[in-house]
Amino acid sequence: MDFQADSARQVYPDGRLVRRAGVAVTVLTASTAVFVLLLLLVESRWRPLMRLDTGTATSLNRHAADAPDAVAVLEVLTSWVWDPVTLRIVLGGLALWLLWRGAWRVCAWVVATAGVSGPLGQGVKQLVGRARPELAEPVSHAPGLAFPSGHAMTAASSFGILLLVLLPLLKRVWRVVLWVLAVVSVVGVGFTRVALGVHWVSDVLGGWLLGIAVVAGMAVLFDRGRFADGRLGRPAREHERGGQGAVTAHHVIPAP
């Protein structure tokens, strides 16, 4: 069930529920709008964007061709550490852990959000039909089409899921660690794809934007009431105790 604004303010006087729901809608709207704009620029072959794509790809390819050891490291990062399969395995482990702790609603959200990301990205690829870069000295190869980058999209959506689920459960120092890991990984994925010459810069930007939009959209669509205390938990419910209403919020991780 969804909360009305008035009842949400009664349950949470500081308005956290309203603000968090508003943030999700804002992120969804902004990321979708920018993605659509980027898609239009790609389809129209807007010259400044094309210059950015070709210039960056050519420059990085020139450096990569002279550094085979660096290319080997990038291949390990993109094909193993940050590969979409690896990230989906991590999310699968998260889902199983949530299920074990009894947070089945959040588990369902994780599975649904991760499940939407891949097919949506592939569908957009087929609609756009953009070819991958063809460089003078290719150092790597990848099958399929280019826009948006599947690696970048999976990284953005996967770490978005991890941040939303885990941040409220961690102490401050571990929150910082998780944020750093997420930013380094998402940016790192994008860099490896462009440096290896298998994607344009705009492909990576499109993947990031679409991944963010998926997480925000599923957060709004799934059930905003389950974000009641900012922990992707079950909706807060009011229980009568001794004639007085006592509000309790069910968190992602129930007390053992």
TrEMBL record:
A GO molecular function annotation here is:
undecaprenyl-diphosphatase activity
Which SUPFAM superfamilies did the record assign?
Acid phosphatase/Vanadium-dependent haloperoxidase (SSF48317)
InterPro entries in the cross-refs: PAP2/HPO (IPR000326), PAP2/HPO_sf (IPR036938)
Q: Which residues form the Phosphatidic acid phosphatase type 2/haloperoxidase domain?
A: 104-219
Matching Gene3D superfamilies? Phosphatidic acid phosphatase type 2/haloperoxidase
Q: Which keywords does UniProt give here?
A: Hydrolase, Membrane, Transmembrane, Transmembrane helix
Pfam families xrefs: PAP2
Which stretches are transmembrane? 21-42, 80-99, 106-124, 144-169, 176-198, 204-222
Recorded E.C. number(s)? 3.6.1.27
PANTHER family, sorted: AT30094P, SPHINGOSINE-1-PHOSPHATE PHOSPHOHYDROLASE
The protein's name is Undecaprenyl-diphosphatase
